[in-house]
Give the backbone structure.
Amino acid sequence: MMTRMSEQTFARRLYLGIIAATGVWCALILAAPLLAKTAPAFSDGCYRFFSQVCHQLDGRSFHFGGQKFAVCIRCASIYFSFLAAIILLPFAIHPAKVRAPSPIIIGAMFLPMAMDAGLHVLGIHSSSTISRMVTGTLGGIALACLLVPLFLETALHLKTNLKNKKVFYATKTG
Amino acid sequence: MQPKPDKRRASLIGGAVIGVLTGIPGINIIAICCCCAGLMAGGAIAYYVYRSEHQEGMEPLESADGVVLGIFSGLIGAVAGTLLSLVFGWILGHPDAKLVLKFFDWLESKGSLPPETVDQLDQLREEMQRQIERGPTVGKIFQGLFFSLILNPIFSMFGGLIAYGLFGKKKYPEQTIQPQ
């Protein structure tokens, strides 16, 4: 009973940690255009940091005050929907009880984004701001549904392993 | 029960994939345009290789394996990618910027751009020309490596976890115990 309680508390704390980390990530995306005039060095650093993971094309990015976001529309949709999904998920289910959905559901949620990008590259369909937003949002929700339970499972597993090792060494030395 | 396979080979393969996808000019643009799918692919491939090495009678695979493989692949990939981009930069001389400049020329040759966009393109072209002349500085190389050492393991870890979620544990036919 006690172990179950501590497991749930650990899961809750870890979940809050994931929300905080994702929040910081999204805040940095917004900080780049928001601080472009007041703190240009920090803003420039944000742009450089995110340039490692996004093309940052001006025509494919949201703008604030004439400055583009640190990532493109599709990436911003993925990250912000991921954040929204992990904030809203605990209202539906306890963090410790969240389970990853089947690969078919995840695949079905990723398919529109893959099709939108792939067909655009092939010249069959022209992706728009709306299509990038909608498909990116679906992808972000799918990622949250898949990654968060697996991440919690891993952390709980590592914690249990660490505890078992401590008990093992304590009994061995004591 | 036998221990699980060694993680080094799978991590090296995953890291090499990330290195190629992020370090070779031209390919790295595709990898970046796919919303860091290249980084995730490295972690996923590392887990897939590891899973294929897993045999019956070994300790079962866990999600932690996907995480660890992803992190290692990301770290190896960051170093490999930086080294590859340095080598290609040294041989070809700032190929990314040259590719972008060619793209600007192509855009302007189409002749349908509004005047303000042409001005912006000219400014960008001047900035890129300056970058080509200056070449990569040690500070920029280390900055890129520093950012890669943070970002690659994160996304690669996600790739490893996604691969664990999609491929799952390796299933073996259940052994039936013969009554003696």
In short: Chain B has a mean pLDDT of 82.
